[in-house]
Each structure stands twice: as structure tokens, then as C-alpha cells.
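Re: that backbone. C-alpha cells:
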């Protein structure tokens, strides 16, 4: 990770800096924002058997795909992945 991120996970907000990490539980709404002057870069690691991107739902995306902030969650547990 490079830079500092402001992480909103559910109802809590905190900072994550270089050499730190955080865990986002399944179906938890979250947002990542660049909190410093240095460009924020991170590595996302997805555990589990399904690693597709189509299981996420955008709740709010005020900056677009190239911006510094993105709120996402997940499909309901009842979602059908049989065609994926």
C-alpha cells in the first residue's frame, strides 16, 4: 500500500497507512478515500471461491471509477451465480 486511506467500514471510520491492512467482511458497505497528498495505491485480496467483480453493488459513487472514493457492498446471499 502507498499513501494513506480514510476507510469507512459500516459505521466506523479510520485511517490506514503504509504497512497496515484492514478487513472488509462479506456484505459490509465500505468506502475508501485518498486521505493525503500522495496518490493512494492498495492491493485488494479477495478470499473465497468466487472472485468475480459482478457480486458488488454500488451504493454511492460520487467520483466515478477513476476517482478517490467508491462505496460498494455485495449482492444478497440469495443471488444466483449459476450463469457466472
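Recovered sequence:
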Amino acid at each position: 500500500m502507498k499513501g494513506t486511506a480514510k476507510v469507512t467500514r459500516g459505521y466506523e471510520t479510520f485511517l490506514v497507512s503504509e504497512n497496515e491492512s484492514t478487513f472488509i467482511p462479506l456484505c459490509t458497505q465500505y468506502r475508501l478515500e485518498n486521505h493525503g497528498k500522495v496518490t493512494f495505491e492498495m492491493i485488494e485480496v479477495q478470499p473465497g471461491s468466487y472472485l468475480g467483480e459482478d457480486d458488488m453493488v454500488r451504493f454511492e459513487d460520487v467520483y466515478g471509477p477513476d476517482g478517490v472514493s467508491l462505496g460498494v457492498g455485495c449482492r444478497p446471499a440469495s443471488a444466483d451465480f449459476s450463469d457466472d
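The mean pLDDT is 74. The first strand starts at residue 5 and ends at 9.
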